[in-house]
Amino acid sequence: MNKVIIEAILGAVSEHGQDDFLTGKNLLDRPGDLSHGDYSTNVAMILAPKLGVKPVELANQILEKLQVFISGGSLSGVKKVEVAGPGFINFYMTEEVTLELIKEILDETKGGSGGENYGKSNLHNGKKMIYEYTDPNPFKQFHIGHLMSNAIGESLARIGEWSGGNVKRYCYQGDVGRHVAFTFYGFDLLKKEEGMEWPSDSMSLSDKVAFLGKIYAKGATHFKDHPEDEAIVQEINKKIYDKSDFEMNALYDLGKKWSMDHFEEIYKVLGTKFNEYFFESDSSVVGLEEVQKGIKSGIFEESEGAIIFKGENYGLNTRVFINKFGLPTYEAKEVGLALLKYNKDPYDISYTITANEQDNVLAVSYKAIEQIYPEIAKKNFHLSHGMLRLTTGKMSSRTGDVVTGESMLHDMTELALEKMKEREIGAGERKEIAEQIAVAAIKYTILRQTIGKDIIFDPQKSLSFEGDSGPYLQYSCVRAKSVLEKAKKQGVSINVEDINLGDLNNDLNNANSPKICQLDWAGGKLEKMLVRFPEVLLRSETEHAPHYVGQYLLDIASEFNSFYANTQIVVEGDILTPYKVLLTKAVLTVLTNGLNVLGIKVPSRM
RNA sequence: GCACCCGUAGUGAAAUGGAUAUCACACCAGUCUUCGAAACUGUUAUUCUAGGUUCGAAUCCUAGCGGGUGCACCA
After folding, report:
1. What's the Å distance between residue A561 CA and nucleotide B43 C1'?
2. Cβ–Cβ under 8 Å, residues A236 and A208
3. Which CATH class is domain A2-93?
4. Cα A500 to the center of its chain, rounded Å
5. Fold designation for A128-403
6. Which of A52, A152, A216, A379 lies in the 20 to 30 Å Cα band around A300?
């Protein structure tokens, strides 16, 4: 459609001989405000200064030519063109065009564009795309920051899938390193101080995880006041790396398993299924090797007993890749990881999603990888998001000042249950639905805004269930579902093929209910918003910005709820009912697919 | 100190360089015998400051002010 319009625009301005100036310019926009038409062009405004005429005058000249095209039939699908504001030319499509697009949403035939396929594109047809996100560390708590990384990573992965990508989800976990050393250092302290024992097998998983959190916090805080213990911590760290202490190995394996099992429980609730898990215990080996090789080729060099990469030569920080104890740092492990990922399954593009506090470090690692494996580095991208921070300041698992993902999910689920208490739903289903609502509330709060910005989270004030919220979107779906159910019970025929514009116009004129006369119909606002869904997804993908989807869904839900409040959709004997039911179905399709992209489930009722 | 990011109603956010800066919360006033009130309708209020580029700036550039993050052996 828009190709036809762009050609018409170029045709209309061809006499001014500015083809070169116009090539590459975006000549056709989608106005945000629907009252400005379906498409608009600013061609008159960018051309006018060059030609030394007033924008509005030029726009009117162009308009005349376009009107000739319309009456000549070479701009079919366009109903009306007009000049507006400082010199925009707005295009209004015919109702037939919109109605055909609505029918596409409802086309549920196999391989059709509609139904659960509506919004899919082939932008990345078959491209192998890797998304690494969440990345919690065994032996440490899964906090709300991980929740944020998960919500963003999962939705980016899904948008990738909807764009035709062959997507794999990776999770990278720090199972070795200082934090594990602190854990065992803290355990030794507590064992001496209060005779603390390692949990028995019969203890619940969440108690075991709480135990790990406790000994880590002990180790980290105690070390802060006793920096003289550095040698002890390094000793433990070394033992973890080379697995030389038989007793510690056994405890380590247990603790790691507890953490992993615990994380898996959370992923299940969140709706993430990882294809592959990577560990620092593996990436450290590969990273160490690569960096050592790189010393010979001059990429890395020795300094003060450590091996460094001179990032300052590239406008970055100089950072340590192997510390003076011969152990690889985060930076070296990142080098190893890039190679591990690529060897596992060669990809076309790989995204690593982390909080932006790691921007500088990852930039250095990627620059180092570029020197070693330029072909792989070219395919790696770091997408960073803001931080989920508390009103009290930065979270710190060292001081125990963290909100865990588990507790947040629990609290939100309780709130959802409270709201549901009047509904007659069985206990099992009730719990499941409440969890879906909790996840929706959390994820939507994260995904409705630009991923780069911090979210200041007040644990006292709970997340919203109203207005601009995940549950609001879910509620709109449940409402639409219940309308469709009523229509089904009344035997309303909803055959898409039966709907045509002539009958609709006729029916609108003949409908005797005043309320129904206000109804949106093909060419109405709701319809025009609905058919933009595929474009919204494309934009989200190209800009890595899930919030466009969230923002869009809110607009759709809000418009639908107004429609719902003003118009009775299913009325016995009403000739417009089949169309209104179809429109409701289209709304439900778009909302469901959009929520799916955000990783949010739609409950059957709530 | 250096580097990067950010300053939009009382609060939290949105806005491919475009048209009257949008949305939600909160506040106030209404709406349940209808298909689910987790909803709807109405009211109030916003681009940090100073220059510049542009037909046009919340958006781009410069300076200032304010906030965040990172700057050598944690991740």
Report:
1. 21
2. no
3. alpha beta
4. 37
5. Rossmann fold (3.40.50)
6. A379
